[in-house]
Structure formats: structure tokens, C-alpha cells
Specification:
Length: 597
Amino acid sequence: MTDPIDLHARLKPRLEPRPRDASLYARAQHEGLSELQARVLAGRLAGYSGEIEALVAPSLRHLAHPERLADGRRAAERIAQAVMEGEHIGILTDYDVDGITSHVVILRTLTELFGVPASRLHSLIGHRINDGYGISLPLVERTLRLTPRPSLVITADCGSSDEPRIARLKAEGIDVVVSDHHALPLEGSPPSAYACVNPTRDDCDYPDPTIAGCMVAWLTMSLARQVLVEWGALAEATPKLSPWLSYVALGTVADCVSLGGSPANRAVVSHGLRLINRMDAACWRAMAERLGADSVPFDAETLAFQMGPRINARSRLDDPYAALHYMLAADDGVAQRHLEVLDQDNQSRKAIEADMAEQARALVQPQLADNAPVLVVFLEDGHAGVQGIVASRLVQAYGRPTLVLTPAAQPGMLTGSGRSIEALHLRDALQRAHQLAPEALPRFGGHRGAAGVGVPVEQREAFHAALHQAVSEQLGEVALYPRILTDGELRAEQLSLATLDELAALAPYGREFDAPLFEGDFLVESLRAVGAEGNHLMLELSREGVSLKAIWFRALTPGELPPFGLGATLRCAYKLNRNRWRGRESLQLMIEHAESR
């Protein structure tokens, strides 16, 4: 066991400058970027050899043609056949933001562009608690009970690891077209699927395997439009699917796929944000009204931290169809009513999350004392819908991959969600754990940064041991501690809105292309606790004659006093933020971490 003092020191967050790719740093400046812009790129895109212009000036011309997707043409032709022959079609998607936005893309394309009556379509979205992830057995049974029964099911954001359920549908005469982006099992694509469109397939020629499920759905439906035009079933003047990129942008950001070295993801998010900020759809207008006039125009952070959590909260806690109805609302009143439901669920989710995180932090202390490379925590009364968020909180606090388990709806089973660190490919670690103890991990899926599992109750310890070994093998001697990567220091004269504009030119920011974070010393001129519970700090800081407003969210435990006072010198990790108030803009620092010097 580790000495408590040593454990506290080991778990103290460390500010570290991002490693910088010297070649990319020089190349970016040679191509006309400022030193600061080059610094940001070089600290995030180590080894990137592609066009810099494709990243800093995102454009849809960087999208590869959907024909390059393995099984793309086969999938598109089957969808086109169903449209032409009047078949009933099931749309089966995951319940998170990626799945809901995929659902909207497929549904709106079929009804508004392909002319399929709504009466021939069936929306199939699993309940997270009652049905579970993907093409679950309860969803299969629901599909088979439909009257009339669909002869084609199109999936999105799921299906790659669901061969047994796909085989059941096939045996009942239902073709399944899988569109997904999650890693395939070792045995490859589900053989019972009519087609499996997934850019992570080994035999897939699509150049970017990091695209989100909603993008795979968008590409597949775009190709179906092309096929229908080729077959003469649609006029060449039929609109393309470009307007739906607003939904793709939301799903891409919320699903935390790479916004780093992916010209495709950066292009769809940039273009989608432009569409969203036209405020043509009721869902965007309702959200803008709820967030206030100063929230417009939306950026990627609005999608990630305002829209995404509200849509996800509904599916985490209850039936996800309210999120679908919100996204599809035809008028502002309907959108506002559905958004109110989502907002209430999000508030409930926050309370549940806080309780679960507190329990989880207490339960993992023995594992931290043993310097475990991966944390596995079982919350007997935990809510399955909040596992992933709690896992993220523990990763952030302790700097090591974490998996949170709770009881599943299926008797004798546990369900879990995991989040990882940069050094570990979580899905690969789970694959290795499955090899070590297949009976302890009968079901799992996900990607590098996040994954889900199903574990038999009696196999929990065996699963923990297998995952511990798998993670140890992959990490080797990597040191594990909470680290806060920064982009270095800014000069006092750089603390301005002009610098913020310079950085905004590199947007969108997101996973693998984090928003710039800087470090530096500041003098505390004033401070006061704010917020309903008094757990945020409003500060006025100064440096070399420059005075700045700053906000530090969740800086305090309610009722706690700050560990520093007026006149203290703080070493801060901070972001630059544009504070809008009654039409006026000023620079504000967003403090992520601070400690007295």
C-alpha cells in the first residue's frame, strides 16, 4: 500500500507543456500561420504529414466519395430498391446524440427527398436501461412484432458487433444494412448483414476511419440518392443531403470523434455550424432562446457542452424519443416543449452524476493506493445511464483509464462504460481481456477513448483481473497521474481579444484538437464565491499592468473558503474566453486549474 502523503502527491495534477512536433511547427509558419497558431497545431498533431490548409480552412471538397466505402454501393442499392418497391423500412439507431442525429438524417432523407410515406417507416431506438446498446434482443423482438413487419432494417451508429441478433432478423426474412463506425470484432463484419458500411473495415478504401456514425449514415444515404437518380426513380434536380450536415456536425462533436488530423470531420463540423447559425430549424432556435442571445453564434463548444448533454440526458435516464421529437420539431413551440423535458432530465442527470461520482471516488481509493493501471468500480445502486460521465470524472481526477459497472436490466449481468487516457486504446484492451477471460466479458464494443461492456455478476473479479493484465501489457512503464497539458505561456500583451480571434481561426476544437490552454502567474486583485451553491469563483487577476476578469467553475466545495486570498500569486491553467454581455464583448479567462506559488 502507498503512504497517504505519497498518494496525495502522486495524484496532484501536473501542468505540462504539450510536446511539440518541430517539423510541423516550422512548416505551419512557413505556410503563413502565426507563431501561436503553429504552436497550437504542432502541439496536437504530432506526425501529421497531410495538407495544413485542409485543417485550417475546412472545406467539403475534402470529403471522399461514398463509393469508396466498402459495401457502400451494395447498401445504397438495397435502400433504393426498398424505396422503389414500397417496402416497409425500419430505422434502428443508438440512443445517444450520434444515434439520434443519424436517425434524423435517415428519416428526413427517406421522407423529404425520397418520398417515402411516414406510414412505411418504423423508428427503432433502444431504451438504454431496458433494451441496452445496439441491435439488442428486445429491439429484435419489437421489430418482429411490428405489423406490417419491415423487410429492411437500416442501422446507424450500431450493428457491427451484433451478428447473433442480425442472424435472427435474417432468418425471419428481414435484410439488415449496417451503417456504423465502431471497431469491428476480430472475426470481421457480421456475416448475416446484407451490407456492412463501416470505415474501420480492413477492406475499406475510405481514407478517414474516424468519422462518426452520423457521417457514415449521411454518406450511405447520399449514395442511395445517387443510385435512385441513376435508376431514374429520382429527378437529377432532387436536392442533395447538404442541409442535414447541421445534424452531422452535432453528432460528430458530441460523439467525441477526432477533430485533429481529420479534414473530413473538421469540414462537416465547420459547414454544419454555418447551417446551424442560420437558425432555420426550430431545434436550433429553441436552444438559442434557452441559452440566451449572448450564446449566438453557436460554436463547437455549444454543441459539446450545451446541446449534446441535454440530448444524451434523455436517453441516459428515460425514453430517447423525446430527443428525436425535439430534433424533428416543425415549429418553435413544439421544440421548446420537448427541450424543456430534455432540460429537466439534464438537471436530474447532474444530481445523479454527483452522487455516483462521490461514491466512486471513495471506492477506488484502495486501487489508487495499489497504483492500479486501470480503475474498475462497481456501483450497486448506480444508474446505468450515467456510467460514462462518472468514468470521465475519475479519468480526469486520477489520470488513469476507468470503467464503471452497474446492475443491468438482464438478471445476473452487469453493464459498464469506460473512458480512457491518451496512452491507452481501450477497445483493444477489452479485446485482449476477452481473449484472457472470454466468459468474463461476453459482450463489449467501442473505440479508442470510450467503450461499453456486459459482464456476468459472478465474473466481476475475473473481468477486473483480465482487464488489469490487458491494460498493463499495453501501457508498460507509462507513468500515470493527472496531467494538464498546456500550450505554454502568453505574453501580457497577448491577453487580448485579438489573440482570441487568432486562435478562433483554427476552430473547430474538440477531441484530439483541444481548445488552447495556457499557463502563467497572476496576482489576485479580488475574488468572490458565486453560483447558487457558492462553488464557483469570480476573480480579478493582474499581470504586468494588465487586469483581467476570470471565472473558475467548481473551484470550491459548497461552504468552503478559497485556499488563497487577496495578493496571492496563482499559477493558473486557463483558456481565453469571449464574454458577451448586452452586446458588448470583453476578454475573460476561464480557469481550469490554479495553485498558490
